[in-house]
Structure formats: structure tokens, C-alpha cells
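Example 4.3 (complexes with small molecules)
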Amino acid sequence: MTAIAGHRSKAHGPPPPDQPGFFAAASPRRRLRAAALRRMSSGAAVELPFQWIVEQSLAAIYVIQDDVYTYVNPTFLAMLGRSADEVIGRGPEAIARPDEAARIRENVRRRIDGEILKLRYVVELLHRDGRTVSMEVDGARVEVGGRPAVVGIGLDVSERLGHQRELEHSRQRLQELTAYINTLREAQRAKFARELHDELGGMLSSLKMDIGRLTRRTRSPAMLGVLGEMDGVAREAIDIVRRVADDLRPAVLDHLGLLAAIRGRLEQFQRRYGVKCILEPEELELPLPQSHANNIYRICQEALTNVGRHARARTLSVHLAWDGAVFVLTIDDDGVGFAATVPRPGAMGLLGMGERARELGGTLEFLPRRPRGTRLVLRVPLAAP
Ligand SMILES: Nc1ncnc2c1ncn2[C@@H]1O[C@H](COP(=O)(O)OP(=O)(O)OP(=O)(O)O)[C@@H](O)[C@H]1O
Ligand SMILES: [Mg+2]
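Answer. The structure with adenosine-5'-triphosphate bound is encoded below.
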């Protein structure tokens, strides 16, 4: 019994600081800490070695008064590889390009004039060895010797900004590469589709005509049977060639435009998946550049494939419209919704759609629908018809 009670009181430990009894049980070190906390929270002045703190600070510290640096700490000088002589009593021109110096002066003026009290921005300064140092400064208006000045703190953010720029650059290169690959792929698809249609389709058609010629010349029932079968196979092969060529590059997209191509795709989708498809409106002026029509069509194609594969929808509706100078494509399904599916690792469809939207300078969103289903909204800014 006793052992258990003792164990319990040990496990609970001393009461937390906000409970009565805390200070009573405190050690001398705790008493000191409590006193320091009390002093700080009461706002009473604490004696601090300010000079030492400023000199040893890991951040650059500076004072600008009457348009010249009147104080900079050793860290400031070290960041720029300069001596005090090169900075003190001089204006920002001593350590910055003329355009940057003008910006620093203007920002100092705004704070001195009381336009703003405090300002944080990145300024490009010049290291003595010629390289640029990006310093993020945060300065405020103060009174020094009864006159206004700006005192600020600076951090060397060159490395961080360098990484950011590199990242931005490689992101941009990646987007350019994706756009290039898309264009290349589109051109190749068009070429394959043409060759398939013209060459293979042409050969199969002439084969079919030969079968017809032979059929007309023979009277043998056995031969007629074989020729009939051959004719069926040739017809099927021609259909397959047409379908594959159309999948690769719908001729209708080139000849009749985006709306007709989407309509054709929806008819095919309805037949294949038994999903009721609605296209609105029946007619719409779509003066889109060919590359835009291609990308929008491919986004639509992938969206349909996804609905067929994942959504288990009964109805699908595609709506095209102009919102001022923005072309808007909305695809609604009444399927299970994204939340009910498990994304396949390494899936590329949504990624590709997003890249195409970005290539068009547009946005792509997927939204859940109530009570069920998914809405895709593609917005592409273009000149209105
Ligand atoms: N209309 C939809 N309804 C419900 N879930 C969807 C729908 N569209 C996409 N998804 C979900 O999003 C995931 C990612 O789609 P994505 O198109 O990127 O890949 P995928 O279709 O699985 O493969 P693929 O790379 O061949 O396109 C899908 O695996 C599915 O879980
Ligand atoms: Mg997909």
C-alpha cells in the first residue's frame, strides 16, 4: 500500500509552474529564473551589454543618418569584405550599384519622413571582391542624438536567393522541355496517323478491292466462302486502322475544330463505356490557335479516360464557354469522386493535364461535386471571339 502511494506521488512530480506551491518548493536557481521572468513581464529595465551584443551579432547592424552610414558593426563589414573607412561617413553608393543606392536612399527617406515606420526588403550590395551580396534588411526609424535616423539589421541571403533562382530556373526549363516534348509528340502522332491512314489504310483498301474483283470472277462456293471471310477481315482491319489513326490524331480536330472533335470523342465514349454524355452548347465560336486546340483536346481526352477508368459514373457532361476573354471548359461526372479512389503510384495523367494547362497560361482545378462526382474546370485566357 505504502509503496504504491509513494510511487504515485513520485510519478506526479512537482506541481507545474502555474500552480500554487511552485515557488515555495523552488531551488535557488528556480528562484532566480522566476525573478528574471517577473522582471521581464513587468517591463522593468534590464541591464544589458548592448555594445557587446551589437558588435558580436551574427546579423549585420547599421545606422544611416543624414544619408550616410554613421555606424556599421563588424559583421556588416565582414559580409562585404570592407573596412570601416570604406563605409562610415559615406552614402550607399560606396557599397551598392547606383540603382540600388538610389533605392536604399528612397527607402531611408520614406522612413525618416514617417511614410512608413518599418521596412523589410532585399538589397543588392557589392562585396569588395566584386561579387554581389544580397542582404535582407529590416530597418526602422529611430532618434539618434535628437535627430531621425534609420537603424537596421541585415542578413546575407545570397545563398538562399541563389538556390531559389536556380530552382525557378530549372522549373522553367522543365516546363519548356515539357512543352517541347508535347509539341514533338503531337507532330509525331499526326505523322503516324497520316502514314497509318494513307499507307496502311490505302493498302488494305486495295486488298479489299482485289477481294471484290476475285469474288465477282469466281463461281466456286468454297472459294466464295474464303473470299467472304477475307473481305470481313479486310473490313475489320480498315476499321482498326481508322480507329487507331483517329486516336493518334483525330482528323476532325484539324478539319472541323475542337467542338466537333470533342463531340466525336464523347460519342465514342458513350458507346464504349455506356455513360450518358452531354455536350453544351451545340455551337460555339472557338477561334483558338491550333496548339491551344490540341492541348485542350488532350486534356479533355485524359479527363474522359479517367472518368471511364475510375469514376463509375452514369452521366458525363462537357460544357464549353467564354467568360469574357477566358475560355472555360467544365467536365462534370456523377461518379464516386476522387476521395473514393486510390491513386495509382506513378500516375501521370493529372500531371500531364496540369502541364498542358500551364503551357496554355491557364489553370486546371478538380472539385468535388454534391452529392457525388467530380468537376474539372480548365480556364484559358484568350482573346474573346
Ligand atoms: N474522374 C475521376 N473520378 C474519381 N477519381 C479520379 C478521377 N480522375 C482521376 N481520379 C483519381 O486520380 C488518380 C490519378 O489520375 P491520373 O490520371 O493521374 O492517373 P491514372 O489514370 O491512374 O493513370 P494514368 O497515368 O494512366 O493516367 C487516379 O488514379 C484516380 O484515383
Ligand atoms: Mg489517367
